[in-house]
Write a structure and sequence with these properties.
heterodimer; A: five-stranded antiparallel β-sheet; two-stranded antiparallel ribbon; 6 helices; 29% helix; B: mainly beta; eight-stranded antiparallel β-sheet; 8 helices
Chain lengths: 178, 1122
């Protein structure tokens, strides 16, 4: 198991620590155990949030990927709706994309404040809305749709645990089928 | 630059920086690119006046436009009504349209259009408020479905400033309110709350942290905690729906909010008494004196209540250095982001602001003249306060401690109170001290080091040399004050340049971000060198920061050379030279594991595995713990090269009866293109026509074997059919086309009575006294014939025969022994079938003077053996010095063994001498030994006549693969600063540069195994008696060989027994396991053969082969080796 990462999607911390005090204790205990023995849905709920099924179904593109670029076409800046271009290498495709694909998406810059900053080289499990009629998209639920991964892109590393993306993928696929 | 362009640039700055704004105070601080004098100032609305324009449409079915306007006005008033704030917000009117999904569109050219008065350049409508009645605007801007009710938590209200003037003022912003999230009255508090927060950002307020236990529940919050919990906290738990489920008065600004806004828009006279505490926050030296300012620490002021307890309700915060640049970029990856915009466009580079905090407008309770505030510090939470600048999104853990103090303020006071973080980290002189990009320092010895990136903007620079077609890993692990790996301190990035590259451009090979490895706290760069040159390694902080608590431990893993660069295809001992070696590294060749047997910081002795085929291969040295590795690409040659030559030493044969071996073994030698240097372990492919059988092939007509250390391969040949057979010997035909080849022919005859002399020609040491067995074979049409009477007679020279007559046995063999005494001239012995004295054959024994002898190494010349294990036999061959290199038997071969220690102060620990007599194949064998001496160097001089050969072996302490857990703190404070003698470790993928590039993808190891120990006793050689195959008879030593590897080769060696009897056909060239066991350094191609594959002579005991459950093979008997 890789080392835990300090940085973590806020949703994780939120679910671990808030609003369900009675559940917090059991979750914290469970967090130190091996996730592979826990149902995928339980792990998904803990890592992606209680709304994980909605997150999974609302997204048009879901993948574990590496940020390989963020560039703003200069011509677009003078446009009415300034956009920023993100390029990902899809390392593990879950929905709407293909593994190995270089995915280029455009976001309205006004969507950025709700997101976690992404820089080259970083890896995320990303849930993106289907592109709009303008060709724009953004992470579903802002930062909730950006789950930071470890350097190998294999684990979601939180303060308390490490969960394999593969386990989340099973849960996500299951939710999308239902 | 005209004003239009300037404005455009600032628009770009604003938009692209929207996620990296400064906070806990100002959200935006002007950095580079703004007008002179503006840098470092909070960016606010000019004159504290904000004018907003709302949508013409309705917000939702329950909120008509006018009602929505009321909500917006109320939200603004939340801020503008704060006492002491010189800020006004007014509705300037309405936008020119109802902004909806229909008027935000994309045209045929792909350009997105929207109403002009909400675009960033629409400064005439400074704040545009869009009522997205049906969510279609949100759908269009954020993605399909984003405007749905399910995403109201994040998408109910969004937007922010999108245009800043060069004067450092906010000049435009846009807000979108999603009407779908405001369709019921119960939803309105949430919309209101989110609108207030977005407006707070639009006004220039940053995120802050106070009473974080409201979120963490540690400790459980009280009502006062909620009362002091700022609206402008960074994030909410997603389960806070409605928001009132979490906060009773979510939209009501708290003291921290008010102070933040008042600092941005200070009123001329608020009417309320306030005071101010400001100052700098500093690292300290050992004496507690202020040193470098410390950025990113939350400074908290709490009003003391009447009981002297710090209030949870009346609390204000300021993050140190919030006006100082948080990310300036770095010299390794550059100073501009992917958009070409400078990282330092936000925040000042004025050192005075690096640790500056400002707690202004602290209220004095009504009725009092003074107020007591407790001043304390705390870390910003990496999760809940991820967005709080200046370090967002990666907070830095403070260093040292500060005991809370009480500061007394009175109305209008400005109290400067510096905060000294005692026991904070102290950087001292380190390996990188004084190094610069232009003048890097030499890489610390051993390739590992510990250092600080201390002092803002500092970086470390090291120089080393590498050669082309090598790769290296540089690993850097950030450590905290305890020496534990940390990701809340230094964000290490690594770059490598050619030293001659003085452009200052970003490194052609670099890590794009920190912590790209799977090892916690570690950044690793893997680079390939395309030229041989000197290179520069740079280590810096990703943000361009530098502080006394930015300590790191680093190492370079680089393998440079391998010697010998060519080994047998069966594998063999090599010595790798490089940087950063340590115990526990794994060595492999072409994916097959090697066996490291001795490791120091710069050398690894390793036994390489067998190769797949002749040619070059890549060596990989890898650290299994860190993932770091170094490759020597195509640096090792197995067996033959395409330029090698194949010489035919012996290829002529007289007519030979069918069924009997020809008189002379066919012998070839592989040599390098200089025609002299022997090629050890090259593949020799034997093949023949007409059914001719090769002894080397186990009686078949074709096989591949390996040359011995002298480059030789030989075989007896036995025709099976009358007529001519053509023999083809090829050098590594599977690797090279066309291969080097040699050919020979044998003509076979057959009668009802054929007599064959086995090994009819011998070369015997002149002056020797020796018994030479002479054997003939009788055949009838190729079938051995028994009971044939043979007469032996000395026909030339002086010799005594053990018997003058004999009778062939069931195998058709009859033998006599010629006793030669002080041989001085050639001796010939005839053997004839009696009584007719026909047919006859002649044995010739040439007297070979010592002056012409030459020594060839057959096997075992290069060995490194762990202490306690025995050496493999050292096999030498004496030849007559002719072009055919005929073997000389009966020669005295002296082996002088000296034990000692090489180095600057060599020590001789003892010596011994042993003499062996060469056998019928010219072979003389000893088993080197160091007795119980232990680790030492073994120098062996072999002498025969005037020929002499020297070689060196080693008895070493075995490698103990161990290293420190990379996550284990190396010790208490101070211990980690000891330079690390041995260190070992990319994940970056950049375009290849001229000299090097990063390859798609370490940790120091502190305890390299010693590879030398003191020798204390003299050598004890073991002289082995060679058997017919050259194998030593070493007295029943049992050897345990554990060899999981599946592949080995038949080897080429002498083909006749001492008695001149042809060796029984060995087994077909099956894939045998190589000896990768303790007996390292043995060339399988030349090592004495496994007698289990030999028929052997009558009375010779076959060895017993057992295999245990671990796959270990135990050889009992004569201790022969595979």
């Amino acid at each position: 198991m890789p080392a835990r990462r300090c940085a973590v999607a806020l949703i994780v911390a939120g679910l671990l620590h808030w609003c369900q005090p009675s559940l917090v204790v059991s979750q914290q205990v469970a967090a130190q155990q091996v996730d592979a023995k826990q149902p995928d849905q339980v792990v998904a709920g803990r890592i992606l949030g209680q709304q994980w099924k909605q997150l999974s179904t609302r997204a048009g593109m879901i993948f574990a990927g590496t940020v390989i670029g963020a560039a703003t076409p200069s011509a677009q800046y003078s446009a009415a709706v300034p956009t920023i271009e993100f390029r990902f290498r899809v390392d593990r495709a879950i929905a709407g994309v293909e593994s190995g694909q270089i995915l280029t998406v455009h976001e309205w810059t006004g969507a950025l404040p709700n997101q976690r900053p992404m820089s080259r080289g970083q890896r995320f499990l990303v849930f993106l809305y289907p592109p709009s009629r303008l060709g724009l998209t953004s992470p579903v639920g802002g930062a909730h749709g950006q789950i930071a991964l470890d350097a190998g892109g294999t684990y979601v590393a939180t303060e308390a645990e490490s969960v394999r993306v593969a386990q989340l993928e099973r849960a996500i696929r299951s939710a999308r089928v239902q | 630059m005209n004003m239009r362009k300037k404005i455009l640039i600032i628009v770009l700055l604003a938009i692209s920086g929207a996620t990296v704004c400064l906070a806990a105070g100002p959200a935006f601080v002007a950095g580079s690119g703004y007008n002179a004098g503006v840098e470092g100032q909070a960016m606010v609305w000019a004159n504290g006046s904000v004018q907003y324009f709302t949508d013409q449409g309705n917000l939702s079915p329950i909120l008509a436009g006018a009602q929505a306007d009321t909500i917006v006005a109320s939200a603004f008033t939340t801020w503008t009504s704060i006492s002491g704030v010189a800020l006004s917000a007014s509705q300037g009117g309405h936008l020119a349209e109802d902004v909806n999904g229909s008027n935000i569109a994309v045209n045929a050219s792909g350009t997105i259009t929207s109403p002009a008065d909400i675009t960033p350049s629409a400064t005439g409508t400074p704040v545009g408020i869009v009522y997205d009645f049906d969510g279609t605007v949100t759908d269009a801007l954020l993605g399909e479905g984003a405007g749905g009710v399910a995403d109201c938590f994040t998408n109910a209200v969004y937007g922010g400033p999108d245009n800043f003037a060069l004067s450092g003022k906010i000049v435009h912003a846009v807000v979108v309110i999603n009407g779908v999230c405001a369709t019921t009255s119960s939803q309105l508090p949430d919309v209101q709350y989110r609108l207030v927060r977005v407006l707070g950002r639009i006004l220039g307020m940053g995120w802050s942290q106070a009473n974080l236990n409201v979120l963490t529940r540690k400790p459980p919050p009280t009502s006062d905690d909620f009362a002091g919990f700022p609206v402008m906290h960074f994030a909410d738990p997603i389960s806070c729906v409605p928001i009132t489920a979490c906060y009773a008065n979510p939209s009501t600004p708290k003291m921290d909010d008010a102070n933040s806004l008042v600092r941005l828009y200070p009123g001329a006279g608020s009417g309320r008494p306030t005071g101010r505490i400001y100052g700098g926050l500093y690292f300290t030296d050992a004496a507690g004196n202020a040193q470098q300012p410390m950025q990113g620490v939350n400074v908290v002021a709490r009003l003391l209540d009447g009981s002297g307890n710090p209030s949870r309700q009346f609390v204000a915060t300021s993050v140190s250095g919030s006006s100082f640049v948080g990310n300036a970029g770095n010299i390794i990856d550059g100073y501009v982001d992917a958009n070409g915009l400078r990282f330092d466009r936000w925040g000042s580079n004025d050192p005075l602001l690096e640790g500056f905090f400002d707690l202004g407008q602290l209220p004095i309770p009504a009725g009092q003249n003074i107020a007591l505030y407790q001043l304390s510090v705390e870390a910003l939470d990496a999760n809940w306060s991820l967005g709080v600048e200046p370090y967002a999104p990666t907070q830095v853990a403070p260093s040292g401690a500060f005991s809370p103090v009480v500061v007394t303020i009175e109305n209008g006071s400005n109290i400067e109170r510096d905060i000294l973080m005692l026991q904070s980290e102290i950087a001292s002189t380190h390996p990188g001290s004084g190094s610069t990009y232009a003048a890097p320092v030499g890489l610390p010895q051993g390739g590992g080091w510990g250092s600080w990136i201390s002092g803002y903007g500092s970086s470390d620079w090291f120089e080393f040399s590498a050669q082309a077609n090598r790769t290296a890993s540089v690993s850097v692990t950030a450590l905290d004050e305890t020496g534990a790996p940390s990701e809340s301190k230094l964000l290490p990035v690594i770059g490598i340049w050619q030293l001659s590259d003085t452009t200052g451009n970003p490194a052609p090979s670099s890590t794009l971000s920190a912590f790209n490895s799977n090892t916690f706290g570690m950044t690793r760069l893997d680079s390939q060198f395309l030229v041989s040159d000197s290179f520069r390694i740079g280590v810096a902080d990703y943000r361009g920061d530098g502080r006394p608590d930015y300590f790191y431990r680093a190492s370079l893993l680089y393998s440079d050379t391998v010697a010998p660069a060519r080994i047998s295809l069966a594998g063999g001992l090599t010595m790798l030279t490089g940087i950063g070696f340590s115990a526990g590294l794994e060595v492999s060749v072409a994916g097959n594991a090697a066996n490291p047997i001795s490791t120091s910081a710069s050398h690894i002795a390793a036994v390489m595995p067998p190769g797949a085929q002749d040619g070059t291969a890549t060596i990989l040295v890898a650290d299994p713990v860190t993932g770091g590795f170094s490759q020597m690409i195509n640096a090792l040659t197995y067996g033959a090269l395409g330029t090698d030559l194949l010489l035919l030493l012996q290829g002529s044969e007289p007519a030979t009866p069918v069924g009997a071996p020809a008189a002379n073994p066919i012998r070839v030698r592989a040599v390098a293109d200089d025609g002299v240097t022997a090629v050890n372990g090259a593949t020799i492919a034997w093949s023949a026509t007409n059914g001719l059988q090769f002894s080397i092939c186990g009686g078949t007509s074709s096989c591949s074997v390996l040359t011995d250390e002298a480059g030789e391969s030989s075989s007896l040949v036995t025709p099976t059919s009358v007529g001519q057979s053509t023999i083809t010997i090829a050098l590594a035909p599977e690797s090279y086309s066309p291969p080097q080849t040699q050919q020979a022919t044998v003509v076979a005859t057959s009668t009802s009575l054929d007599l064959v002399a086995l090994t009819p020609t011998r070369w015997v040491a002149q002056g020797s006294t020796i018994a030479v067995p002479l054997t003939v074979e009788a055949l009838d049409l190729g079938v051995p014939t028994a009971n044939v009477a043979i007469k032996f007679r000395v026909t030339n020279g002086s010799a005594t025969l053990s018997s003058a007559s004999g009778t062939t046995n069931a195998l058709g063999l009859a033998t006599t022994t010629a006793q030669l005494t002080n041989l001085s001239a050639a001796v010939q012995v005839s053997a004839c079938v009696s009584p007719n004295n026909a047919p006859c054959q002649t044995f010739t024994m040439f007297s070979t003077p010592a002056s012409v002898w030459k020594l060839e190494t057959v096997s075992g010349s290069a060995q490194v053996v762990p202490v306690g294990e025995i050496f493999a036999p050292l096999v030498m061959r004496v030849t007559d010095g002719s072009a055919a290199s005929n073997p000389v038997m009966g020669a005295n071969v002296a082996f002088t063994t000296t034990l000692g220690r090489a180095g600057p102060d060599p020590v001789i620990l003892g010596s011994s001498q042993a003499v062996a007599v060469s056998d019928g194949n010219g072979l003389a064998v000893i088993v080197p030994s160091v007795g119980s001496v232990g680790a030492c160097d073994v120098f062996i001089t072999v002498t025969a006549g005037i020929a002499s050969v020297q070689m060196q072996m080693e008895s070493v302490t075995a490698v103990v693969p161990s290293g420190p857990d990379p996550k284990t703190p190396p010790g208490a404070r101070g211990s980690r600063f000891i330079p690390i003698p041995n260190t070992v470790e990319t994940t970056s993928s950049l375009a290849p540069a001229a000299a090097l590039f990063a390859v798609p993808q370490g940790v120091p190891l502190d305890n390299p195994a010693a590879n030398q120990s003191t020798c204390s006793e003299a050598a004890q050689d073991v002289v082995a008696t060679a058997d017919s195959t050259g194998n030593p008879q070493n007295g029943g030593v049992v050897s345990r060989i554990c060899d999981p590897a599946p592949k080995t080769y038949s080897h080429s060696d002498s083909s006749t027994s001492d008695a001149g009897v042809p060796k029984a056909p060995p087994k077909p060239p099956e894939k045998k396991a190589p000896d990768t066991a303790k007996r390292i350094g043995v060339d399988k191609s030349t090592a004495p053969k496994d007698s289990s594959s030999s028929r052997g002579l009558p009375g010779e005991a076959a060895p017993v082969l057992r295999e245990d459950q671990r796959g270990c093979r135990e050889l009992a008997g004569n201790g022969l080796f595979f």
